[in-house]
Design brief:
Elements (H helix, E strand, L loop, with lengths): L1 H32 L2 E4 L5 E4 L2 E5 L10 E11 L1 E4 L7 E2 L2 E2 L12 E2 L5 E4 L2 E10 L9 E12 L6 E4 L5 E3 L3 E5 L8 E5 L12 E6 L2 H5 L2 E8 L18 E11 L14 H20 L1
Parallel strand pairs: 1-15, 6-12
Antiparallel strand pairs: 2-3, 3-16, 4-18, 5-17, 6-7, 8-17, 9-10, 10-16, 10-18, 11-14, 11-15, 11-17, 12-13
Length: 288
C-alpha cells in the first residue's frame, strides 16, 4: 500500500510539473509573437503570423529591374498602401505615399513572385529603406504590414481601429504582421546592406494561398516609424525608431535581380516546446 501511495504522489508531482511547463510555454510563446525583432545582422530573421522577414541584399544589374509599387516618405512616422487611386486615404487623411505612378501603383497578383522554401510556398516582397547613414538615424522601425487582395483596381481607403484590425475598403486581408491586437515590429539598419537607393534591405515572405490566384490585384499597406496609427498605444521609447524623412520603397524583383534569400527558420514556439519537454523528462528521471 505504501508503494502504491508513493507512486500516486510521484504521478501527481509529475503532472504538476507538466502543467507548469505548459503554462510557461503559453506565456513565453505569446511574448515571442507580440514583440519587436531586430534585423541587425546578415543572418537575422523574424517571423510574425507565418510571415518571414529576412535581411537580403539584392543588387540590380540593369535598368528597370526594381519594379517599385509603393513608396512612402515622411519625417517621424509614415504610412501608405499601393494603389492607382489619387488621393489615397489613411484613417481620414491623405496617406504618405509618393504619388508618381512609377513608384506607387496598382500591383497585379501575377507580378508577385511565388517561391518555395522548405516545402512551403510564399509570395515574395522586397523593401529598400533610405535613411541617414549616421547613428541613430540609420535605424528604422517597420511598425505594420498588411497584405490584401481584390478584383478591384485603384482602391483608395485604408482604416484602422487598433493594431491588427486594419482594412482596405473593397479588399480581403490575407496577411497581417500583428497578432491578437498585439504590437509586433521589425527594426532595420540602413547601413547593414549596401546603403543608398537601389539596394534591397529586407525581403518579406507571405504564405501563399488561393486568394492570390483568385484575385487580380494585391495591396500592401505598411507603416514605418511609430505612433502614426495609434499614438496613444505606441511609443519610440519602447525600442522603435522614427523615419528621418527618407523614402521607403516596396518592390518586386525583375529577371536580373540577385536576391540571395535565406531559408525560413523553425517557429520559436517549437524550440520552446522541445526545451520544456527535455526539462520535464530530466526532472522525472531524477525523481525516479
Amino acid at each position: 500500500m505504501a508503494g502504491m501511495n508513493t507512486r500516486v504522489v510521484c504521478l501527481l508531482r509529475s503532472l504538476t510539473v507538466a502543467c507548469g511547463v505548459f503554462v510557461a510555454l503559453l506565456v513565453f510563446s505569446n511574448r515571442a509573437w507580440a514583440s519587436g525583432c531586430n534585423l541587425y545582422t546578415s543572418s537575422a530573421s523574424c517571423t510574425f503570423n507565418g510571415g518571414v522577414y529576412n535581411v537580403v541584399g539584392p543588387h540590380p544589374t540593369g535598368t528597370g529591374v526594381i519594379d517599385s509599387f509603393l513608396r512612402v516618405q515622411q519625417k517621424g512616422a509614415e504610412e501608405g498602401f499601393n494603389t492607382g487611386a489619387r488621393p489615397m486615404m489613411c484613417d481620414g487623411r491623405t496617406c504618405d505615399d509618393k504619388v508618381d505612378p512609377n513608384f506607387t501603383r496598382n500591383l497585379l497578383s501575377s507580378d508577385v513572385p511565388v517561391v518555395t522554401i522548405n516545402g512551403q510556398k510564399y509570395r515574395e516582397f522586397f523593401l529598400d529603406i533610405n535613411e541617414p547613414g549616421s547613428t541613430p538615424g540609420n535605424y528604422l522601425t517597420l511598425d505594420a504590414v498588411e497584405v490584401y487582395v481584390s478584383n478591384s483596381a485603384s482602391l483608395d481607403t485604408h482604416t484602422s481601429t487598433s493594431p491588427g484590425y486594419g482594412a482596405i475598403t473593397g479588399a480581403t486581408k490575407v496577411y497581417d504582421m500583428e497578432t491578437n491586437n498585439g504590437d509586433n515590429w521589425v527594426n532595420m539598419d540602413y547601413n547593414l546592406v549596401g546603403g543608398g537607393s537601389g539596394w534591397g534591405d529586407m525581403v518579406l515572405f507571405v504564405p501563399d494561398s488561393a486568394a492570390f490566384a483568385n484575385n487580380q490585384y494585391v495591396y500592401l499597406y505598411s507603416e514605418f516609424g511609430c505612433g502614426n496609427q495609434f499614438i496613444s498605444a505606441k511609443s519610440c521609447g519602447s525600442g522603435k525608431y522614427q523615419s528621418q524623412a527618407g523614402f521607403e520603397e516596396w518592390w518586386v524583383p525583375g529577371s536580373n535581380t540577385t536576391t540571395g534569400t535565406a531559408a525560413v527558420p523553425e517557429p520559436a514556439t517549437l524550440i520552446l516546446s522541445g526545451t520544456g519537454l527535455l526539462l520535464f523528462a530530466r526532472r522525472y528521471r531524477r525523481r525516479r
